[in-house]
Amino acid sequence: MGTFSIWHWAIVLLLIGVPVFFAVRSAAKPSQTPEALVGFGGWLMLLAIGQALSPLRTLADFANSADSYQQLMTLPNGPLAGYGEVALNLAFLVLQLVVLVAMLRRSHRFPRLFLCQWFAIPVVFILDTIWISSILGVPLNQVLAGDALVAPIASFVVTGVWVAYVYKSVRVRNTFDRASASGQVASA
């Protein structure tokens, strides 16, 4: 499983490229009545679902890492490394929840918070990698062994596509506009 064949790349291109094409096309296409594009519909509904599930995914990653944390506790400086990693992931979880609440409240801050969440993906990964490497005295190439880069890169790319949508979409602009969104709560 060491190589990534052309067919794997074709599948990745299809899985990412087709939704990106349609998202960009629908976001760039002017509507006959742009004022009518308000609320959680269309592509924004998919983004809302993804944002609602993202904290759950982070919690699932915590649960899946429980055995790794137990093994980490037996190493010298292991508890410090583990608690630091948990603290970083909890901070990211809090950011995800803040972004979710801003989205559900239709806050005009949502697009900026979503952008911050996107930037936080590589920042948390880099800080975590440096933290584990320095605390445990393990070379970076061992921390990054295997497919450790796949999930963060995929998450960063997919979220980047949604960031582009958030800043291009008329529906997003209308839904999270300061005047139309003040104090409204989304009805899901």
UniProtKB/TrEMBL annotation:
Domain of life: Bacteria
Keyword Membrane included in the entry's annotation: yes
Keyword annotations of the record: Membrane, Transmembrane, Transmembrane helix
InterPro entries: DUF2569
Coiled coil spans: none
Transmembrane segments: 6-24, 36-60, 80-102, 114-136, 148-167
Protein name: DUF2569 family protein
Phylogenetic lineage: Bacteria, Pseudomonadati, Pseudomonadota, Alphaproteobacteria, Hyphomicrobiales
